[in-house]
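User: My collaborator sent over this chain with a note saying "see what the structure looks like." That's all I know about it. Can you take a look?
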Amino acid sequence: MESIPRQQDTARQWMRASRTERPVVDSTVTIKDVAEHAGVSVGTASRVLSGNPATSATARERVQAAVTELGYRPDARARALRSARSHAVGLLVSDVRNPFFADIAHGAEQAALGASYVTLLANANEDTAQQDIYLEAFLTQRVDGIVIAPQGEGGGNLRALERARTPLVFVDRTVDGFDVPSVTADNAQGVELAVAHLAAEGHTRIGYIGGPSSVSTGRARHDAFLAAVARHGLDEDPDLITAGDFRSASGGAAAAALLGHRRPPTALLAADSLMAVGALGEVRRQGRRIGADLALVAFDDIDWFGELDPPLTVVAHDARELGARAVRLVLDIIDGRPVESAVLPMRLVVRESSTGRPAAD
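Assistant: Without extra context I'll predict from the sequence alone. Here is the result:
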């Protein structure tokens, strides 16, 4: 066994090596210290650190070397005060547990990083009160802009953002009465694709599991469903329409109600992925077979939907692109560039959950 002194010597050598390989950031080091260490003026050091091209290659090398050796890190708060920017974007999604919004967040984050911005992610949990808490936090933190999938009808701190003239972009959802640029998907196109496919497969009674009417996507998809059913000459029975809250449990309850009718539907269309998961569970609990006894189509393509047995037909759109576009839009607003709202297309991915012929009513 090594002696205690030998172990202490080894530990000291390791610590010295660690300091050499990975300098410890010293919050007491100032830009003046960096300039002195590099043998340049404070002004030159400042220009190098701010990325100003009006510096020589030699000066840049010496300053960067001094930064590394001294472990200098600029004071982000002071820099933000000087530039009047925080280089941070607030991102508020509706429900972080929903894979669709996780993909939106990922796309937004990557687009922000590409522009040297960070994202501060918050979760509204499909609740306007929680939304207000985070919007207040964003205002207090003085983020440069905010991307939000909004809840409710536009009260509370959404109006405060409007009054504060904070650069703001809606993603996936909108709010009536707000003149805010948005990046959304073509909901009417998506519903039409799903209903047309089910009609072509021979279904005339389609049960619809919609979202809440307090959310723009809930309203848009509901209205599009009514129009598509009428356009294709399908059964317009109001008992075929239910509404959930974009969560799994509500999808299961809606499916149970629809399948409990005297003349149940031969196909279900769920207006989001989590409600589709709930509906799928309820169908299986009742001993019915998706793709054989009942067709099922869902909005949003979760990665593992294609791995189910049978694989699930979906109305898909690019959630990551929704997030990325929304961030690029808010950065354009921050930089004073003109902006326009965008509506991204949807597509139908046909799999085995919807290709069996319906059983007779």
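A starting point for your reply to your collaborator: The longest strand covers residues 88-93.
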